[in-house]
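Q: What structure does this chain adopt?
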Amino acid sequence: MQITELLTQPGVITMLRAANKRQALQELARRAATISGIDEAKIFESLWEREQLGTTGIGGGTAVPHGRIAGIKQPLAIFARLEKPIDFESIDGEPVNLVFMLLTAPDAGADHLKALAQISRLLRNRNICSKLRGADSADAIYAVLTDRTTSHAA
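A:
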């Protein structure tokens, strides 16, 4: 699975303003609702419920909040670079400023796991994260995320 199967250019947020994790997830849900047509509150609830099971802050200033939601036809991702790092209760205790959200259907099973693996591999690459933090536009961020030489199929 390629990032281009999950993320479109409208799904890139260059400077998300959020004071905390809850606010960041609300903003991500708002953008996902605009793109998918699915109710924003349902998206947020799915993300928040998953977050209560354990943090999706995977370390290195990155987080991968994810949820399963009825009505979604294909996996949907939103990428956001935060204006200021926030506490995400990450496994390494570091604040987060790169967030890659994923939504899939409740019966997505293996596709959900493959997409999470793809995103996690991408965000564990320090070079890619550095480029994402330094990119000056949504187009530049999208190009870094979808560059086939840096992303590997899941």
